[in-house]
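Translate structure to sequence.
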């Protein structure tokens, strides 16, 4: 699977805006002061571990990381 791009998806219906993803992967996720979640949908190869950590730590399991 090496060489394929990473894709991050957030299920906004499940996300409760705890911002744990932002703590785990601050380069990929940002919770704005007004409660909107911004995230990188196509992270770089060197950000795989950050994306996986954010998905693993999300208490609502709202983050999915796939190779495309």
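Result:
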């Amino acid at each position: 699977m090496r060489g394929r791009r990473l894709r991050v998806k957030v299920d906004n219906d499940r996300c409760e805006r705890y911002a744990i993803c932002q703590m785990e992967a601050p380069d990929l996720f940002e919770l704005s002061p007004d409660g909107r979640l911004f995230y990188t949908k196509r992270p770089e190869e060197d950000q795989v571990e950050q994306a996986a950590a954010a998905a693993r730590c999300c208490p609502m399991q709202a983050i999915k990381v796939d190779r495309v």
